[in-house]
Amino acid sequence: MKRTLIYSAVVAALGGLLFGFDTAVISGTTDWLQRAFDLSSAQLGFTVASALIGTIVGALFIGKPADKYGRRSVLFVLALLYFVSALGSALAWDWYSFLFFRFIGGLGVGGASVVAPMYIAELSPAQYRGRLVAVAQLNIVLGMLIAFLSNYLIAGWDLGSVEWRWMFGVETVPAVLFFVFLFTTTLSPRWLMAQGRESEAREVLEKCGTDSGDVNLEVTAIKNSLDLEHHSIKEPFFTKKYSVPISLAVMLALFNQFSGINAVLFYAPHIFKMAGFEKSSALLNSMGVGGVLFVFTIAAMALIDKVGRKKLMVVGSIGYIVSLAAIAWAFFKFGTEFTDTGSQVVLYSVFLFIAAHAFGQGSVIWVYLSEIFPNRVRARGQALGSATHWIAAAAISWTFPLVAEYSGGWTFAFYAVCMVGQLVWVWTTMIETKGVSLEEIQNKLGIE
Questions:
Q1: Fewer CB within 10 Å: C terminus or N terminus of the chain?
Q2: pLDDT band per the 50, 70, 90 thresholds, residue 286
Q3: Most confident listed range (247-251, 297-301, 346-350, 443-447)
Q4: How many Å apart are CA 189 and CA 219, to the nearest integer?
Q5: Which residues contact 18 (CB under 8 A, 6 or more apart)?
Q6: Around Cβ 427, how many Cβ atoms within 10 Å?
């Protein structure tokens, strides 16, 4: 792999680190927020979901700016949104101001979930694409791990009622670093081609490498994919010819969230307390969640370009089903009177669940969404998949406190049934994209 390719991919993936940090940091603050703003369970659910509402808006509306101004230019804006959100959330003066700044952060997360993987995919030769796009997922996980660790360390400082403010404020540091490093990255060659800037695109392809080893062949393939004489990057998106990648993106995104992953990540300390753990142990266990995510994401990165996306999804689906069924059983059996045995079942089942997610859906989703749409509609396709993901995430995160308060067992049993559905879908419908160029994937899907 060429140095420019690796460097640009790693810097773009810092958007993923901020994505992960912003997503997970709230898990350590829910009790403080409930007390600081006197929130009911429904209001707490909405508070957690407020950032996710922002992610929906960010994901839905980022496609056109990414096409018009470029992938890298949009990443600069996202870095600023992360900074404003972190500082504003830390300094929030009431519940409404806190919701506003969390919404701003959500815009950044939603935008990053579209643009960062797409930018990396458009830079990368097919043989490295899975691993390089998965660097963004690794950074998402690293961001979550840093958030869990940061929350744990800050909780140990005994800061009292301002503890949650410090937890949010820490994010300003990586946001500034992300903004500065973006100045040293390159532009997407496929975006440059769509803008008619062929000579610049050739320079980038020389620096980053191509699928065939021949820049001229790569440029011809990109031209054929764009085919701007007969198509426009502004042409209608919801048409029959794009129906297959649209359905793949929507189903993958829905299944991702109906595993319950965001409920577990956002409410990990809360779930562990429901299972009988004390506050400090619950926060420490949440760090364990981050550690498991990190290790199994690295394992998936090592395999995604060798065994393919589909096999990882099959293994992950089986892990989901087993772990969620075990968690549901524990809550059905022990209710609110957990013994040590019941608590340990929940702990290790959550770890298995997180490992299954990191190895399957967590590592595949952003790679797959960045691959399956043609060059001329990739930004809109990625936006659709990401927006679907975040709509489902908001629904799950908003309802979890209420539903879990009623029955933890039925909540996790529902997620387990959904994952049986995912296994069937992966086995029967999902296509493999391993080792296939972006332009060849378009041909594989029968899109002219």
A1: C
A2: low
A3: 247-251
A4: 9
A5: 79, 82, 108, 109, 112, 143, 171, 174, 175, 178
A6: 12
Q: How far from chain centre, in Å, is Cα 107?
A: 13
The CATH number of 3-444 is 1.20.1250.20
CA distances from 25 to 51, 166, 362, 442 (A): 12, 11, 18, 38
Any idea which residue has 């387990």 for tokens?
Answer: 416
Burial 368-379 (b: 16+ CB within 10 A, else e): bbbbbbbbbbbb
Give the residue from 77, 25, 23, 83 showing the smallest Cα distance to 55. 23
What is the Cα–Cα distance from 48 to 256, expressed in whole angstroms?
A: 18
Name the residue type at position 208: C
Q: What is the pTM of this model?
A: 0.80
Encoding tokens for residue 60? 């839905």
pLDDT for 33 beyond 90: no
Give CA–CA dist 216/222, Å, rounded. Answer: 10
Residue 198 near residue 190, CB atoms below 8 Å: no
User: How many CB atoms lie under 10 A from the CB of residue 193?
Assistant: 24
**C-alpha to C-alpha distance for 330 and 409, rounded to whole angstroms:** 7
Least-confidence region, from 180-194, 369-383, 389-403, 409-423: 389-403
